Amino acid sequence: MGKNRFYPEEVKREVIQMKLSGEWTNKQIMEKFGIKNKTQIKTWMRWYRNGEHHRLAQPTGKQYAYGKGPDDDSEITQLRRKVTYYEMREELSGKYQEIERKWFQKYL
After folding, report:
1. Residue ranges of the domains in the chain?
2. Other beta carbons within 10 Å of 64
3. pTM to 2 decimal places
């Protein structure tokens, strides 16, 4: 089983600059930095092109798909996330009670 490798933000940015220069191939970059898969380079390039520069600084296992993560969100965004959570929780609770009621009617 493979082990996740952490690459510092500086390495990721240097790899991106090397790719943008057009003078380095994926294989050469992989050998220089010990990167095991070219998909890693492609991922960093995709983040760069999409303007997701904050993702380069995130540690392994903390890849937030939207925004910059919970600590960097504004207070309004955090409150909206909480409201959405409680709305879903309430909806699921109602569905569970309905299923439980039907089950008791059927089997009791």
Report:
1. 7-65, 73-108
2. 15
3. 0.55
